[in-house]
Automatic annotation (TrEMBL):
Lineage of the organism: Eukaryota, Fungi, Dikarya, Ascomycota, Pezizomycotina
Listed PANTHER family: NAD-DEPENDENT PROTEIN DEACETYLASE SIRTUIN-1, NAD-DEPENDENT PROTEIN DEACYLASE SIRTUIN-5, MITOCHONDRIAL-RELATED
Organism per entry: Aspergillus ibericus CBS 121593
Keyword Transferase: yes
Name of the molecule in the record: Sirtuin 5
GO MF annotation list: histone H4K16 deacetylase activity, NAD-dependent; metal ion binding; NAD+ binding
Length: 484
């Protein structure tokens, strides 16, 4: 039985280009569909390719599973589902899987005939499809492989961290904090979340004739017509040297020697305004801080092209023409035994490249477009610098829907506590403590309770914040300003 041979895929997936998580609706249908989608790649290799007997119906089978997978929620298990595990049984199986790993778990269950694959699927929230009702138990193995892979990649919440006091204590005690940030930490400065489809920026793009506003950040579109990007670039260009209280909070962690790495999905480079040191930041989607010539790869500081961007002009490389001139000079010299010949003197042999009129390359800001690889530093730092050091993860102002940044919490050790600070909770990843509200308000209140001084002109000196529990969730809290 080959249920567990698939590679974990962790590190390789970190090299993927920026992709939206394919799940249709993360907030509603929940976690199952997207995780199954993620797991399926692995399963299709182990189950359908290596295990193939050449019958040729693998594709059909796979697509049937895809359509037939039904999510079984814990509430349903609690109420009781015919032929399914009880909720207690399910919890015990999940715990056991995480304890002993995939191979040993399969050996201990199916290998010892202690439970059927059909029933075991239900322990991991998958209801076997009706068309398999009379099938032999082996028919449920591919489904179980999906279920196990999905469960195994899910990080279980640590039960010992729940309250605000727990969060404050973690802040004070931890020394190597990974902070993962998104657009939510810059919105209080009026900077639009340009990747989100709800913003005004995207609605301005209709006149550019794009079928999907995200095409502005599509590398193919940029190569074909850079003017589309530069027509809106001035609107997202960071100009003022301002930063939000949340940026100040990250700087405060740095000052206290607690900031291991700030992975930011933002391209506004505002962390630098707050004084966060470059060596403590990974700009996961690049930034405007530098720009690179698409032709000769020359890199310049971003502000060298800011004036042109602000004017809506396409910035051109100033080195390209020089390089082309030098190149052709060398060739002419070599081709004519040291005798200089100008273009006009040439005998007209058009096969030689150096008679094309050289054009300068476009200077592209080093933000990561859709379809481009993430900066190498991202996966390398995560796996070789942070993974063995991190003692606390704080995710702020991002719904973590964009891969591979979304995978960071899952790649770090499961025993490391994870805090979530944002306006709305996410359901596709489970954090230990959810601190909901305006992230500037949440961090300022956390600092207040920690006895830390977080100075920022946007935080009123006498700000009072009320923290309310969310009914039904032990570890979810809402922060509200109750008067200043
Ligand atoms: Zn160039």
């Amino acid at each position: 039985m080959d249920l567990v041979s698939a590679p974990s895929g962790e590190s390789s997936s970190l090299k993927n280009p920026v992709l939206e998580v394919a799940s249709a609706d993360v907030s509603k249908a929940g976690t199952a569909t997207e995780n199954i989608a993620a797991a399926k790649g692995e399963v299709s290799q182990s189950e359908y390719e290596t295990d193939s007997d050449g019958s040729g119906d693998e594709w059909e089978t796979q697509s049937l599973y895809e359509d037939a997978i039904q999510v079984l929620r814990d509430e349903q298990l609690r109420e009781g589902v015919p032929d399914a595990c009880t909720l207690d049984e399910a919890v015990a199986y999940r715990k056991r899987l995480h304890e002993i790993g995939k191979a040993a778990f399969v050996e201990e269950t199916l290998g010892q005939d202690t439970v059927t694959a059909k029933k075991l699927c239900t322990a991991f929230g998958i209801l076997p499809p009706a068309f398999l009702d009379d099938a032999p138990d082996e028919a449920f193995h591919p489904l179980l492989a999906i279920a196990i892979s999905r469960e195994f990649s899910r990080r279980p919440k640590l039960p010992q961290y729940n309250t605000i006091d727990d969060a404050v204590r973690l802040l004070k005690e931890c020394k190597n904090i990974v902070v993962l940030t998104g657009a939510g930490i810059s919105t209080s400065l009026g900077i639009p979340d340009f990747r989100s489809k709800d913003t005004g920026l995207y609605s301005q793009l209709a006149h550019l004739g794009l079928s999907d506003p995200q095409e502005v950040f599509d590398i193919q579109v940029f190569r074909e017509d850079p003017s589309i990007f530069f027509s809106i670039a001035k609107d997202i260009l960071p100009t003022e040297k301002k930063f939000s209280p949340t940026h100040a909070f990250i700087r405060l962690l740095q000052d206290k020697g607690k900031l291991l790495t700030n992975y930011t999905q933002n391209i506004d480079n505002i962390e630098a305004n707050a004084g966060v040191l470059p060596e403590n930041i990974v700009q996961c989607h690049g930034s405007f801080a530098t720009a690179t010539c698409v032709k000769c790869q020359r890199k310049v500081m971003g502000d060298e092209i800011f004036d042109e961007i602000k004017k809506g002009v396409i910035p051109q490389c100033t080195s390209c023409p020089t390089i082309f001139a030098e190149d052709s000079g060398v060739k002419r010299k070599r081709n004519s035994n040291g005798v200089h010949r100008s273009r006009k003197d040439n005998d007209g042999d058009s096969s030689d490249d150096d008679y094309e009129i050289p054009t300068a390359g476009v200077m592209k800001p080093d933000i990561t477009f859709f379809g481009e690889d993430l900066p190498d530093e991202f996966g390398h730092r995560l796996l070789h610098h942070d993974r063995d050091r991190v003692d606390l993860v704080i995710v702020i102002g991002t719904s973590l829907k964009v891969a591979p940044v979304a995978e960071v919490p899952g790649v770090l050790p499961r025993t490391v506590p994870q805090l979530y600070i944002s306006r709305t909770p996410v359901s596709h990843t489970e954090f230990d403590i959810d601190l909901l509200g305006d992230c500037d308000v949440v961090v300022s209140e956390l600092c207040r309770r920690a006895g830390w001084e977080l100075k920022h002109e946007m935080i009123p000196a006498d700000e009072k914040v009320e923290v309310l529990p969310v009914e039904g969730y032990e570890s979810r809290h809402v922060f509200k300003v109750v008067g200043a």
